[in-house]
Amino acid sequence: MTERPDVSIVIAFHNERDSLPQLLDELKAALTDFPLTCETLLVDDASTDDGADMVERFAASHEGFRLLRLARRGGQTECYRSAFAAAHAPYIIRMDADLQDSPADLVKFVEPMREGADLVMGLRECRRHRRLLRLASAVYDIMIMLIFDTPLHSNSGSYVCFRTALVKDVPFRKNDHRYLPLIAMRRGEGHVREVLVRHRSRRYGESKYRPFKKLLLGLPEVIRFLFRLKRGYYDLVRTPSGSSARSIR
């Protein structure tokens, strides 16, 4: 790809060998007639299966796809740190690799981006998660709404689009990837949109984030994050505006 893309699609994965063939095929189909120019960054979190090799072979024969490898296991936060630093586009769309997010829904983010949205949250309709995980997500969202004047109906979605300038050079701490929408809003987003996206059941493997852990052990982590956020730890250092803020076609 010689021209600068309009959007960078970022997908982190760890041991998703069974999901990757379908994901790559669906991405290829969704991007064939996509109205914006894209680069797709797939970040391997030190997988022990052959998923990264599969992605590498696919990227070698498909323009616009790139594989990034972490030398050692870093979790999703480190994956996004690496991908955001490598992204070239003025917008980033983050999505999961486990097939719960459908590449066919990428087109739903196009109109909000063209209208200048800084943050576009994908709201999952008919969530396929287990009851306890849905409860944990609801508790988190209620807590965030009580503390912040956030316009979003949910602040915990995985399928979300950001203006790149709002998530570049974030001083990430462990598990901060879970709070990227709040970080982006703190850093100065001015135009928030929401789009409905489908949610599919996970077909392969198991979730790496247990509902019990999210309910009982996640609260101290959230409190520490909110303390950092309120103290201005993530505040954007202003620089002269450049091409990263350009409008897309």
UniProtKB/TrEMBL annotation:
Keywords: Cell membrane, Glycosyltransferase, Lipopolysaccharide biosynthesis, Membrane, Transferase, Transmembrane, Transmembrane helix
Pfam families given in the database record: Glycos_transf_2
Alphabetized GO MF terms: undecaprenyl-phosphate 4-deoxy-4-formamido-L-arabinose transferase activity
Segments crossing the lipid bilayer: none
SUPFAM superfamilies documented for this protein: Nucleotide-diphospho-sugar transferases (SSF53448)
Segments forming domain Glycosyltransferase 2-like: 8-164
A single cellular component GO annotation: plasma membrane
GO biological process terms held by the UniProt record: lipopolysaccharide biosynthetic process
Record-given protein name: Dolichol-phosphate mannosyltransferase
